[in-house]
Amino acid sequence: MKELLVPCAACYSRLCVTAAELKENPELRKKIAGVIEMELECSTKILNIIEFLDRWVLNSEEMKIRAPFNHKVACYYGCLLVRPPKILNFDRAEDPMTMDKLMSRIGAEPIDWAFKTECCGAGFSVSRTDLVAKLSGKILEDAEDRGAEAVIVACPMCHSNLDMRRAQINKQAGRKFSLPAIYITQAVGSALGIPDKKLGMKRHFVPVKLSMTKKKNAPAKAAVPAAQTAEKQMEA
């Protein structure tokens, strides 16, 4: 296999760092090759979920935007999708824009906000839930105060912290955040016309009510190829 899709930012970062270390360490590659009894070339291209969607889904002529995701969103990259920048070389480490552009192509309006690459608490969800509540609370506070209707994430770990730990977050912050966290494939799937039930929208801890609002208020639009939608937005 020439490419490996990694839909988790933490896993993506670790695999990219490991691949880089192996390329620079021939002795270690030789040792591992002896264990697995085959040559270790380290030639597999590691893709994160945003790269995959951009390359294979939204640029496909078969994919049509049937229900534009016309909502204000906070694109949350987290701390591991773009770091370490010299190894990942995916997007700008402090102000990445790839997800913002992708969301614009499906009809969303990405907001300008300050916490798109801040840490949510990552793997401390169980051992230090208090830290997760504090860090994730700041993310939700900035996104909600700037008018976002949802936080779009590209990592299951970030998603679980922002969604599953909402009770602890609200308690820590002293306010109730109703802003849902949505995994990026759910947003794209919604724009492509996939039903909410199939997308798992009803399985979140924080209710996702965006699709109901969209269907009620948004005017019906004809299906438009994703590539054509992107071209119009680039011209605008």
Describe this entry's structure for a reader:
It is built from 12 helices and 8 strands. The chain is of the alpha/beta class and 236 residues long. Helix 6 crosses helix 8 (166-173). The protein is globular, with a radius of gyration of 19 Å.
- By oligomeric state, this entry counts as single chain
Number of domains: 2
Distance between the termini: 39 Å
**Low-pLDDT residue spans:** 211-236
Question: Looking across the biggest beta sheet, what order are the strands in?
Answer: 5-4-6-7
- Rg is 19 Å
Average pLDDT number:
88
Strand elements, count: 8
Shape-level CATH architecture of the largest domain: 3-Layer(aba) Sandwich
Strand content: 5-15%
- CATH topology annotation of the largest domain: Rossmann fold
Molecular shape: globular
SSE pattern: EHHEHEEHHEHEHHEHHHEH
The CATH class designation of the largest domain is Alpha Beta
Count every helix, treating DSSP H or I runs of 4 or more residues as helices. Answer: 12
Keywords for this structure?
236 residues, alpha/beta, Rossmann fold, 2 domains, four-stranded parallel β-sheet, two-stranded parallel ribbon, 8 strands
Write the layout of secondary structure elements.
Layout: E1 3-6, H1 9-24, H2 26-36, E2 45-48, H3 49-57, E3 64-65, E4 72-76, H4 85-88, H5 98-105, E5 109-110, H6 129-145, E6 150-153, H7 156-164, H8 166-173, E7 181-183, H9 184-191, H10 196-199, H11 210-217, E8 224-225, H12 226-235
Parallel strand pairs: 1-2, 4-5, 4-6, 6-7
Antiparallel strand pairs: 3-8
Helix pairs in contact: 6-8
